């Protein structure tokens, strides 16, 4: 450093110099993160299906490996598991839609009675509103809908475009899952050839550890979602609330978004209970959902999820929030699995002894062998 610069540097506090050094480095890291995020956004139609396919692969791979060990051909095992899974998922969606169609007339009838009862209460109850006031309020609401008809139409067209994207993404997910199940290990071996030879084995071991955590997360989430759906669905069925089975199915699907998924879909049950049975049943349904969420938070998550994935609850909440803010529902769905993967990946990658770190993960989460990303050689 020139003498003039040295003399000028002496007038700056060491704390300020250290802060400035940290500041420009953090700015570079922030810029790199921003560029990386923009790349993800640009290629989102490819990255999101591949990420979903990886999660589905983690869930289905143990069944494929089990059939493979029994002597079945790898391709036949993949075809059988995929067809069975698609049949179960398609049957579940068809059941939900069919039940909603069959239960809609009864629900509409009950809602109509509720609206008429509310109208009579507004007229004859403490508020003493006149029929003209209520009619004007209804007319105002109708006029507002007509005024915003253009926005609603454009929203419907946007939704149609989204459906097309979902369908194309679904086909990409399906094809990716097929090839991951058939040759996942070969794909991983090929990708890691880009890594320098002296670090290649460490990266491969870290990838296997991350995939193991992802598989544990997928299995644990499925179990927790099933318990949520059965508990809430049984409760609303006992109370005689319409559409109990399809609501339970929606709660099962929603529970794959940690923390808030089952709560949001369960709120639909509260709305149905309010419309069909009144405020008392709605409050009871809300209490049931809160009780199940407490059971999940204090019993299921520590026992099931805690054994499958070693992630601090704060990391789950912060990751879920950040994912939702950055990418909406898809971000919330993928945030926690990504954290689960990179938590184990980074721990093994940065460990002084990767083998010892893998053994530590085995002790925390269970052995890696059954959940290894093994798609055949």
From TrEMBL:
<keyword id="KW-1133">Transmembrane helix</keyword>
<comment type="similarity">
    <text>Belongs to the autoinducer-2 exporter (AI-2E) (TC 2.A.86) family.</text>
</comment>
<feature type="transmembrane region" description="Helical">
    <location>
        <begin position="223"/>
        <end position="245"/>
    </location>
</feature>
<feature type="transmembrane region" description="Helical">
    <location>
        <begin position="162"/>
        <end position="183"/>
    </location>
</feature>
<feature type="transmembrane region" description="Helical">
    <location>
        <begin position="43"/>
        <end position="64"/>
    </location>
</feature>
<feature type="transmembrane region" description="Helical">
    <location>
        <begin position="251"/>
        <end position="271"/>
    </location>
</feature>
<protein>
    <submittedName>
        <fullName>AI-2E family transporter</fullName>
    </submittedName>
</protein>
<feature type="transmembrane region" description="Helical">
    <location>
        <begin position="20"/>
        <end position="37"/>
    </location>
</feature>
<keyword id="KW-0812">Transmembrane</keyword>
<keyword id="KW-0472">Membrane</keyword>
<dbReference type="InterPro" id="IPR002549">
    <property type="entry name" value="AI-2E-like"/>
</dbReference>
<dbReference type="Pfam" id="PF01594">
    <property type="entry name" value="AI-2E_transport"/>
</dbReference>
<feature type="transmembrane region" description="Helical">
    <location>
        <begin position="315"/>
        <end position="342"/>
    </location>
</feature>
<feature type="transmembrane region" description="Helical">
    <location>
        <begin position="278"/>
        <end position="295"/>
    </location>
</feature>
<dbReference type="GO" id="GO:0055085">
    <property type="term" value="P:transmembrane transport"/>
</dbReference>
<keyword id="KW-1003">Cell membrane</keyword>
<feature type="transmembrane region" description="Helical">
    <location>
        <begin position="76"/>
        <end position="97"/>
    </location>
</feature>
<dbReference type="GO" id="GO:0005886">
    <property type="term" value="C:plasma membrane"/>
</dbReference>
<keyword id="KW-0813">Transport</keyword>
